[in-house]
Amino acid sequence: MSETWPLLFAATLNAGTILVIAALGLLINERAGIVNLGAEGMMLVAAIAGFATAVHTGSDWLAFAAGMGAGAVMAAALGWLVIWLNTNQYATGLALSLFGAGFSAFVGIKYSQEKLSERMHFEIPGLADIPILGPALFRQHPLVYVAIALTVALSWFLYRSRAGLVLRAVGESPESAHALGYPVRRIRFIAVIVGGALCGLAGAYVSVVYTPLWVEGMTAGKGWIALALTTFATWRPARVLLGGMLFGGVTMLQFHLQGEGVQVASQLLTSLPYLATVAVLVLISRNAAWIRANMPASLGKPFVPGS
Q1: Domain residue limits at 59
Q2: Number of domains into which the chain is organized
Q3: How the protein sits in the membrane (predicted)?
Q4: Full-model pTM
């Protein structure tokens, strides 16, 4: 048992990293007033882009860059449609998600039998040998620590920098920001691309590190969970980190229970992360005033200069 819990905690950090990186990207989108329902499709396209790059180059970092590029390109398409053409954000995001699922499945056909080379094992010298804490905290992939650093950096950016204040102003009142001379559409477009790149990084992490192979639909709803996580976290980066790790823990708990031979239907255990997501959203929705107090005021609303 003494060895089981550190390993379970380490697996929780690994699983939670995917949700944290994707949710931070979506938080940037929503802080600018844009709802991105295409995250699942972006992550799937990024997953196949990252996996294919890793197969052909042998470099995980190039794979991450490819995933971020794929996510950014899809996000740019979303931004062009909803920001400049004023299409419905919800319908456009759903269409992008469906496109990403189909496109990734088509492109990934020839990669379904491919395997990546032996994965590297990372550890922090000295700290990794600490009993209990070492295996749990200091033998993680570098992107786990990057996710934590991103959380801190985004918190500083949003609440301590002028650019972050402008971004939040655009999300709260684009009309006022425009009146002050800020290019609202351009700011929103940049925010959407940055958010899409982070979703792409999360998708590439799934296929290159978390489950180093390609399977159609392998993100398994993580994009939707990340979307729910932004609401769960009330659009605050630190709470995104906490929530991501909680959802990651639920995901790993199902595997742990299955491994321990718990006499519960495997289908029920597999559904635990999604049941947890629904339960959290139900609990949050009971306090609509609290949601309205924290939600960006222009979230999901189009902005047309001069209208």
Answers
A1: 4-294
A2: 1
A3: Multi-pass membrane protein
A4: 0.92
Asked if residue 143 belongs to a domain, the reply is yes
- Quote the Cα angle for 227-185-233, to 5°: 25
* Residue 222, domain CATH: 1.10.3470
The verdict on residue 227 lying in a domain is: yes
pLDDT per residue as tens, the chain (307 positions): 456 777 788 888 999 999 999 999 999 999 999 999 999 999 999 999 999 999 999 999 999 999 999 999 999 999 999 999 999 999 999 999 999 999 999 999 999 988 888 788 888 888 888 887 888 888 899 999 999 999 999 999 999 999 999 999 999 999 999 999 999 999 999 999 999 999 999 999 999 999 999 999 999 899 999 998 998 888 999 999 998 998 888 888 777 776 666 666 667 767 777 777 778 777 776 776 767 778 899 999 999 887 6
Query: Residue 51 domain-assigned?
Result: yes
